[in-house]
Write a structure and sequence with these properties.
With about 140 residues, this protein is α+β, with helices and mostly antiparallel strands. The protein is built from 4 helices and 7 strands. The protein is globular. The protein starts with 5 loop residues before the first strand and ends with a strand.
Length: about 140
């Protein structure tokens, strides 16, 4: 069964985003979260789900987004004012994981990645294709 996605629409950045997977998956499942923007590019964040739901705070999200925005000034708007309320989550495909690994190698010298990020992506190349699960999220404002 293919992974399902979750989508939500709210006009402000959530204070907390809770991301979880249900079904058969191994710890380290790679999940992509997309945040739509009213202008310029949306933000894309990769997280890894282990044995319980992952909680991301607005503060953590903004730190990540600001880092990307400061490096690619012309491509990204400030999510504090440009967030369009759309959030989407999906289990990453092999193609998406390989693209993320390529992006890591291209930008590792200008962006700060979390410790173990590359190793987690490489492990997800094995985990994600074997997974039979859905990912979903909930927001707290």
């Amino acid at each position: 069964m293919p992974a399902l996605n979750g989508t939500m629409h709210q006009e402000e950045m959530p204070k907390y985003l809770l991301v979880a997977a249900a079904g058969e998956f191994e710890p380290g499942l790679a999940v992509g979260i997309r945040f739509g923007m009213k202008s310029k590019n949306g933000f894309f964040l990769i997280v890894f789900i282990y044995d319980k739901a992952l909680t991301l705070s607005q503060e953590d999200l903004l730190i990540e987004f600001d880092q990307v925005r400061n490096v690619f000034v012309m491509d990204y708007a400030d999510p504090r004012v440009a967030f369009d309320g759309n959030i989407q989550s999906d289990v990453l495909t092999e193609t998406e994981i390989r693209a993320a690994i390529k992006a890591y190698h291209q930008y590792a010298n200008v962006l700060k990645f979390s410790p173990g990020y590359l190793q987690n992506l490489e492990k997800a190349l094995e985990i994600n294709p074997r997974s039979d699960c859905i990912v979903a999220f909930d927001t707290l404002y």
